[in-house]
Amino acid sequence: MASQRAVDLPISGGGHVSFHLEDTAFIIVTHSYKGTVGSNAISGLEAAHRKAEGEKGGIVHLVFISAYAAPLGSSLVNMNTELAPFVVPNPTNDSRVIDTGAEKVFYNDVHKSVSAPSLAKLSPQATASFTSKMTETVQGTEVIPCTYIFCEKDPAVPPSL
Fold it and tell me: How far apart are CA 147 and CA 124, in angstroms?
């Protein structure tokens, strides 16, 4: 049996993680905003693509858990028409910060003892992360199998998206 492990990847703060794809099949699991990041970042790393190039390993499945699955050429803003009301301009630079109201969206079903420390860890996001258009995507194609799991109590990603 092949070994399995999960890796928590940094989304901000400049952290980097390297993987060696040889002989390893990966399932990428994304949640919320990271659906756009995940599906945009894996182009060319799919197992089928790597096999055609004479390489082994690669990504064999993409899972969206209440995540944005943005079509090619769209952005998070295009999909929503506007940013969520709790995502406001940062007065000091070209980024967005999470403001009042995020607790009801991100932590609507947990006690304040859990939500308060988590809210304190939220950091500014570059405006481009909301407005940049998808240049690569694998969902909606036959390149890689995709699964979408919708969580009924997760109000951050509306069901229509």
Answer: 29
